[in-house]
Amino acid sequence: MKIIILRGVSCSGKTALEHMVTSGETHLVNVPQLKDEAGAFHRYVTLVELTQALEAGDLRAVAEGEGDTFIVDTCIHAEKVVEAFPDAEITQVALVTSWPLLLARRRLRYILAGVRAGVVQNWPRSIRQATGFSGPNYVEQMTLPGVPTTWVDTSDYPWEVIPSERVRATLSPSYVQPDLGDPKELYQQALHIGGEWRGNDARIEFERGRQDVVLPEVCDGMAVMDIGCSEGGFLYEVLNRGAAYTLGVEIRDPQLDLMKRVRNGTYLPLSTANVNIDKHPLPSLTGAGGAEAQWDLILLLNILHRVVDPAAVLKGALSKSKQVVVEAPFYMGLSPCKPEGSHHPGTWHLPPAWVKGVAEANGFEVVSIAVGPHAQDQRLVYHLKWRNGNNGYS
Ligand SMILES: C[S@@+](CC[C@H](N)C(=O)[O-])C[C@H]1O[C@@H](n2cnc3c(N)ncnc32)[C@H](O)[C@@H]1O
After folding, report:
1. Residue pair 48/14 in contact by the 8 Å Cβ criterion
2. What is the model's pTM?
3. Cα angle, residue 156 at apex, residues 300 and 280 outer, rounded to 5°
4. What are phi and psi of 292, to 5 degrees?
5. How far is the centre of ligand 1, averaged over its atoms, from the C-alpha of 218 (Å)?
6. DSSP per residue, 217-284
7. In order of start, what are the domains of the chain with their CATH numbers?
8. 78-87, 172-181, 378-387: lowest mean pLDDT where?
9. Is 29 buried (19+), middle (13-18) or exposed (0-12) by CB count in 10 A?
10. How far apart are CA 177 and CA 303, in angstroms?
11. Distance CA 209, CA 61 (A)
12. Residue 386 three-state SS
């Protein structure tokens, strides 16, 4: 029998890993040690199951059932598992992320549990808890001595194995002004990072205008996902406006690398996800107790017209968020089509009536439709808000 023990401090990602494993989101976790030869995850034993078995006085009961390798989510019972299974081959997978991201995730957890963002921001307890385990000695405290260890960085999706020599630098990155390279090489967006405009100067006014049409004026404590985020321009701006945590979904490597460089150098609470949304579901947000939480805001800006199935992607976003903002080319019809004469030939144009229909079928209402500065004759910006079961008037 083989046992893989998960290790990691609070908010390092153990319960999120459980969620991804049990819901089959294998595109978000690239850890060969957790999979069998066919690529399927080994059987997962939750902390609750383990605690119940321990209380019933028979820890070995958790090993009954299919398969001879199982993953146990436990830091607190790790020694007891080792004691109870002297015959097993035991390894450990240790989840790590940088202390600024850990701090942000812990703050978000308090906010998701109902504590106001402003209180959490000024709450010494949250800062102490987040930084308490983040010094250099954290590495020694994290693992069971003598048990072979695989280190996994949970900062960005897919979560990846890292060599042990990279663990300390991952936990405590150095603060450096990020080198943005040559703006003309990369930036489609101008980037408002920490209140300072960087990158493509020629687009500052344009981006400022778009941000004001798309984003709430105040984003205090919000968790925001931007799908097809390019260089992350909208995420830096929601952070300027008070967001607690952000996730940028992209498929282009140079854009993903740039976001990680900015994040590592500035300590901004930003993660990236290298996910092809034509093929895979979106990452979830894990709240208190490991429960799936709703994102406060998901952005779908100038991306729906390029995907294979705009309805599937829009529904996926609506199922995970309380607000969704869509920016897309429109035409006056009933269902999406790829019209002649578009600025971007071969892309979908979405009728406002169709956007409204998909929103309403999924419990959302269209609270406004605006003309953005982007290709004014062709694009509209829709603000969609979850109705939370009411009739839209209360
Ligand atoms: C037209 S750009 C829009 C960028 C940004 N949302 C904006 O409005 O400034 C579309 C972005 O979506 C990304 N993208 C396209 N197809 C994608 C897919 N299937 N999965 C994830 N990202 C995708 C592209 O790499 C590109 O950065």
Report:
1. no
2. 0.93
3. 50
4. -70, 130
5. 25
6. S--TT-EEEEET-TT-HHHHHHHHTT-SEEEEEE--HHHHHHHHHHHHHH--SEEEEE--TTTSPPPP
7. 2-168 (3.40.50), 183-386 (3.40.50.150)
8. 172-181
9. buried
10. 30
11. 60
12. strand
Question: DSSP state, 77?
Answer: T
Q: Report CA-CA distances (Å) from 379 to 242, 302, 342, 348, 359.
A: 28, 9, 11, 11, 18
More confident residue, 286 or 94: 94
Q: What is the mean pLDDT of residues 64-85?
A: 81
**251 CA to centre of ligand 1 in angstroms:** 8
Reference 302, options 330, 273, 263, 282; nearest CA is 330
Q: Whose alpha carbon is nearest atom 24 of ligand 1?
A: 228
**For ligand 1, is residue 248 a contact (CB within 6 Å)?**
no
CA gap 42, 36 in Å, rounded: 6
Which residue's structure tokens are 């900015």?
Answer: 262
Residue spans of beta strands (DSSP E) within the chain? 2-7, 29-30, 43-45, 69-73, 89-96, 149-153, 159-162, 190-193, 196-199, 223-227, 245-250, 270-274, 285-286, 292-293, 297-301, 323-329, 364-370, 379-386
User: Distance between CA 232 and CA 183 in Å, rounded?
Assistant: 14
pLDDT of residue 183: 65
Ligand 1: which of 229, 230, 300 to mutate, judged by most atoms within 8 Å of the beta carbon? Answer: 230
pLDDT, tens only, 242-253: 999 999 999 999
Question: Which of these, 185, 186, 174, lies nearest to 233 by C-alpha position?
Answer: 186
Q: How do strand 29-30 and strand 364-370 relate by DSSP bridges?
A: unpaired
pLDDT at 212: 94
Q: Quick one: how far is CA 381 from the chain centroid?
A: 23
Question: How large is the C-alpha radius of gyration of the chain?
Answer: 22
**Torsions phi, psi of 147, nearest 5?**
-105, 125
Give the Cα separation of 336 and 331 in Å (integer). Answer: 8
Polymer length in residues for the chain: 394
Kindly report whether the peptide bond that precedes residue 178 is cis, defined as omega within 30 degrees of 0: no
What residue has token string 């008070």? Answer: 242
User: Which single residue is written with the structure tokens 């790590």?
Assistant: 96
303 lines ligand 1 (CB under 6 A): yes
User: Residue 365: beta bridge partners?
Assistant: 385
